[in-house]
Amino acid sequence: MKKATREQTKEHNKKLILNTVYVQGEMSRADIARLTKLTRATVSSIVSELIDDGLIDEIGQGKSLGGKRPIILKVLGNSRQLIGIDLADNEFRGGIVDLNGVIVNRVKIPVNDKSGKAALNLVYNLIDSLVATSTSPLLGIGIGTPGLIDAHEGKVRSAINLDWQDLPLRKILKDRYNLNVYMANDCQVAALGEYTFNYRGTIPNLIVVKVGRGIGAGIVINGKLYQGDDFGAGEIGHIGIKENGLQCVCGNRGCLETIVSNKAVLNYAVELAQNNPESSLHQFSNSKNRIDYNSVVKSFNAGDDEIQAFIHDIGRCIGITLANMVGILNIHNISIAGMICNFGNDLLTSIQQEINKRSMPILNRNTRVVFSNMGEDIIIRGAAALLMINEL
Ligand SMILES: [Zn+2]
User: Fold this and answer.
1) pTM for this one?
2) Domain range spanning residue 344?
3) What CATH number is attached to the domain comprising 164?
4) Lowest-pLDDT choice from 50-59, 126-135, 283-292
5) Rounded to a whole number, what is the largest CA-CA distance in the chain?
């Protein structure tokens, strides 16, 4: 291996320090030296440069640990901006995000089931409009996209709904925008977002289950996204749950996705509306387009027996899958994200009960399943976090 030049070492240390302050939130120069194992002199000199670059700032004095009160440093949120992109659903979303993870501008584009080159053109439109509204230098583009993603190569190996196979998305976007691009699977990106903005520094491990057009999990272990040998870690959507269940796009039957995805919920609701005059959804039976996810949530909240049983079953199926994950990974904290959160605590109870039924009490008594509070921004902010972790 070639020895790093002095310039490379300095650049590396600069990134390390900036990233440490970003990940920890607020800290003193002494804290940085302790965590990075760099000398105090190196830390002081690089911190001065970062302050000159406008990337971090001194925000006041911390508590004294015996001696002089230390000066606290923080990454300056507005000094740079980045672009976070969410290609997970039938609406592409993007945001301009500051260094604190705050979205300062959003753009949404309906996909209308476009795929292939047409879908790629929508990604250009989305990024074009975001670039045009940025007000600080852009650090790069972070992307959460469905499918199997080779994050090292920057390729979408396979995204069935978008009909992308071996698409070198990173190279395409890098060439077009001359910005650094980082990408990962949408659910993995969601996990990174939830971890970075809700849990960083407080817990080491986290599972996030994201339900949308499909369902997948993102797994954070020791503060880092775990992507697996083929970048497919957390691909729980195609775990078989029901023997002789519904046909799935993957070729098998009864996959978790065929039971809990947004589309599965809507398909069930449409069928119920048409076949059961007693159902609160029957009012929609003449115009099936009018049933949307919120109508199903309303019926659930109004106590519709069949919808309640259906959602309870969804919770059970997610619980079965999570019980396996708890057995394999022994991770305490699990967040659920997506519109499914609108079904509220009854759904959480169904999930938790099933986990308890199917895993060792000594493992599951510390398992805590909650809904993510990040709403529809979870992937945009996660994609920004992916970029920040790599670029800062
Ligand atoms: Zn499947």
Assistant:
1) 0.88
2) 196-377
3) 3.30.420.40
4) 283-292
5) 76
